[in-house]
Amino acid sequence: MTGRIVVVGSLNLDSTLRVDRLPAPGETVHSAPALCSPGGKGANQAVAAALLGARVALVGAVGDDAAGRMLTAAAREAGVDVSTVRLVPGATGQATIVVDRSAENMIVVDGGANASVDPQHVRDDLADADVVVTGNELTDAVAVAAAEHAAAAGAIVVHNPSPYRPLPVGMPHPQVLVVNEHEFALLGGVLDDASDGAAITPEVPPELQATAVVVTRGARGAVVVERRTVTSVAAVSVAAVDTSGCGDAFLGALVERLAAGRTLTEAAEHAVRVGAFAATREGTQSSYPTAEELRAWIGTQAG
User: Fold this and answer.
1) What domains does the chain contain, in order, with CATH numbers?
2) Positions marked active-site
3) What is the pTM of this model?
4) DSSP characters for the chain?
5) Per-residue pLDDT reduced to its tens digit, 32-91
């Protein structure tokens, strides 16, 4: 049996607007009709892992409203244990996602009920976790509490500092840090590509030397830095429709494989495929594959 994953993160109602191009500051553009769907980085990551067959629970909070009920129902239907999602007074978190014709996006988030998650809430809900995922859509205090409790229990801690903030003071080193290129640079890391893109020599900041780092690179795949060994993971070429939520699909797939006992590089190779699949569909959670869908799609890619 695979290990148990606990994702400590956000749940948001996503409103997606499709436009010809992203607006410049001060500019108004028109969109196609808005699409409302379940989202939030924590929920996205948990759903992505569950659809692939993982045992996964989500620790978070939603408001006492229709949006909150819809989000928990969607996660439950995907196979996520939502018994650790609190129902609190007030509004559920919301995100507005604007996607252009080239599948690039911009996102604005109102955290809503996510702000009610507190450190004690987290400590009570991490029993028997083998892999714990933390991020930055909740408070630093919550991320620190989750990492401390998980590390003390011997669980693998995977941290995704998105939206970007520096690593919280007092946070134990996560075993795995998952960042995109922009976040890696803000943490002080450097990716040095050769002119042909083949050679990659990352410089990892000293404070992260004891941590394995996975750098996601979108259409260029990913880089895994582990024990001074650097592995470049090739991308899967697809015609992207919508890249929103692809990073969460990647992370969910990564921890699904880690919980199954795979190496970090094997997990990253799997995650690149899942992220690429997600880019071929509209939406966030609605774009994520089941294990069966992924296998069938990989077969068509190989052909």
Assistant:
1) 4-10+40-91+114-302 (3.40.1190.20)
2) 248
3) 0.92
4) -PPEEEEE---EEEEEEE-SSPPPTT-----SPPEEEEE-HHHHHHHHHHHTT-EEEEEEEEESSHHHHHHHHHHHHHT-B-TTEEEESSPPEEEEEEE-TTS-EEEEEE-GGGGG--HHHHHHT-TT-SEEEEESSS-HHHHHHHHHHHHHTTPEEEEE--S--PPPTTPPPPSEEEEEHHHHHHTT-B--B-TTS--B--B--GGGTTSEEEEE-GGG-EEEEETTEEEEEPP-----S--TTHHHHHHHHHHHHHHTT--HHHHHHHHHHHHHHHHTSSSSGGGPPPHHHHHHHHHHHH-
5) 999 999 999 999 999 999 999 999 999 999 999 999 999 999 999 999 999 999 999 999
